[in-house]
Write a structure and sequence with these properties.
Shape: globular
Number of strands: 11
Helix content: 25-40%
């Protein structure tokens, strides 16, 4: 159905990241929906390996300048924007010197996960929510891709529960076989600061545990990879949320 406002929240998108299924799928989904006459916006983190010069990112001063409080610490939110190369499709980048300047996405050179991946995910989710509200643009569909994006529906249905801004949006999450890693044990304390507690994901917090948790907070779950790892596939099969097996890009609008 054209003329919808569709928000893609992702951690990867071609050409900013290459050689991953998620990056390719999100690019194709967003372009297809855009070309069919929908109002499409994409939000993603401004990871350090994304070249601002090459992709012509520029800061949006009217959207920047907010502070997001993470565990009692003020972190400045910087919003940058670019058009997808060769297309009139806007991509917004959530940026912060402390969280996203480093060249790697989630891991040190030796493979150790960053200690603050939990804070980075919270900052990303809340940064997207606050920026969308500042844009005064109300999405009909929110499609989540990548483990960091899984924090958004959890926040919408808890911390922002009394906020009616997104109340009519249909939230879809795609599942991918991302590399998993543990999150800091302090993530529970940081979420409690935002009055979020009782999550099963906190029993053994990890990238994947929050993706699985988020299935309880969305309207539809779809396989982003055709074959999922054992734990993710089990959670997919057991969820009571409306779900769909893998859909090719040409069929993705069935979800909307």
């Amino acid at each position: 159905m054209p003329n919808q406002k569709i928000l893609y929240i992702t951690t990867e998108m071609y050409p900013y990241q290459e050689d991953t299924n998620m990056a390719t799928v999100v690019n194709k989904m967003a372009l297809k929906m855009h070309q069919e006459g929908n109002d499409v916006r994409v939000f993603m983190p401004r990871f350090g390996q994304i070249s601002e010069r090459k992709f012509q990112l520029h800061e949006v001063i009217r959207l920047s300048g907010m502070n997001i409080i993470i565990n009692d610490l003020d972190q400045p939110l910087i919003i940058k924007v670019a058009s997808l190369p060769g297309e009139r499709l806007q991509v917004y980048f959530i940026d912060n010197e402390e969280y996203f300047k480093r060249k790697q996405q989630y891991f040190e050179d030796d493979g150790t996960a960053f200690d603050d991946n939990d804070e980075r995910a919270i900052f990303f989710a809340r940064g997207v929510i606050e920026t969308i509200k500042k844009l005064n643009w109300v999405p009909d569909v929110i499609h989540l891709n990548g483990w960091m994006a899984s924090f958004m529906p959890i926040y919408l249905k808890t911390y922002y529960e009394s906020d009616t801004y997104f109340k009519d949006a249909k939230i879809v999450i795609s599942l991918y076989n991302e590399k998993d890693a543990a999150l800091s044990a302090n993530v529970e304390e940081k979420l409690k600061f935002d009055n979020i507690s009782g999550l099963k994901a906190l029993d053994k917090p990890s990238f994947q545990s929050f993706v699985i948790e988020s299935m309880n907070y969305v309207d539809a779950v779809v396989k982003g990879d055709e074959f999922l790892n054992e734990e993710l596939d089990k959670a997919f099969n057991e969820t009571a949320t409306e779900k769909s097996e893998y859909l090719d890009v040409d069929s993705i609008n069935k979800l909307y």
